[in-house]
Amino acid sequence: MPTSAALSRTIVEPCKSHPPNRQHSLGPFVVSIPSIANLSHFTLIETLDAYGFTNRAPSPWRGEEPDDWDAYPVEIGDLPDFGRDRAPVDNNDAFGGSLGAWDSLGDRIFGQSRKPERLPPPGAVDALAWYLPFHCYGPDWGIYIKEDEVLNLAAHVKSRLGGGPPKPDETQQLCRVALSILYLHEAFHHKIESFATRLEISRLSAVYLRYDEHVFRPLLGTDSVLEEALACFEMHLRLRTEKSFHGNVRADIKEAALSFLTDWIPYLPPGYRRGLDRHLPRELGVLMSQVAEGRVTPSQSPNDWNIASHMIRGLFNQGLVAHVVVPVGTKPTIPWLDAARYLSISTRKVERHITKDFGYVDTGRGKGSHRHYHCIGRDPITLPSNRESLSPGVQRQVASALGYKNIRELASKC
Ligand SMILES: [Zn+2]
User: Fold this and answer.
1) Ligand 1: centre distance to CA 93 (Å)
2) What is the pLDDT of residue 346?
3) What are the structural domain ranges in the chain?
4) What is the 125 CA–ligand 1 centroid distance (Å)?
């Protein structure tokens, strides 16, 4: 049995002020449940591993290997907001990239948008972006989005928008909606894995891999694959309704993006193409029962889940980072990603930082490809040996163990 104390413990801390509503008074102390935001990636993966709920022989259905791509982390919530008060893009734009870089990207998107109108190939959305589950990929889990496909979708939105070559501000807004479209689809896969994980921890039996094997994979390629249909539904719904995803982009750009989705979704493969069916939300309960029972035809009433609707929230909804990927050895062209280039950190640098500055010790338990480090009072750290650039997942695990806010802070300290 694992010692997953971090998952189950409550935190007892002195009461500093009037207790907020969500805390319960207990004499001079306040007992609060650790918030979801405090869940460390390491604890999650270690606990699931220890219970035997994971399988590191990744399913070919779930996406491409992270090592085949160079990945640039991007947090959708960190991208610029385009509200009325936002200053126009200038050469000192906080998100990197000069006006010139955005200008030439705008020209490229404009050029592509003028090609004879054609929808992206009828391959699945998951060929353009994919979600790697933590049940199969450990610290490399997460959303991966091909940069070329972001630009391709941006061109499709631009062709509906019309007008001349986009100015830098418009180019940024086109990139933002294109990125959000792919992100939102993949974020739904994270929600389903999060739901399965909650069931696993409450029942202490495997759920996600069983659902993957007995429901998701057999149904893939058919209109019965509810996870893909609902992922497409959310893509459209959340882009339309949630400010964090359209980021206050101009109304005509948002409308062009939604009009593109309205044409594109029915053109997608079976399952995906049902994404505009307005009755689909009713089937969310069926999908939840399928996950819970690992059966295509579950016996539990879908209505039961109305009582447990919060179980479908993503474990890492806040700050779920996407990795925009480019082929190994090439450079990204979206200037936001260029600004993230300094996030490349080697194994050697991190090793030096955690041992010298934090007192981590190599346990000698690692296999040749990985080494394990321990430090009393902190989460252990596992590092792949001799990497010039650690994957965003590993960087995230290290940042969380050291108590840093994000991997940007880690990069600045190494
Ligand atoms: Zn998908």
Assistant:
1) 33
2) 85
3) 5-34, 42-338, 344-413
4) 6
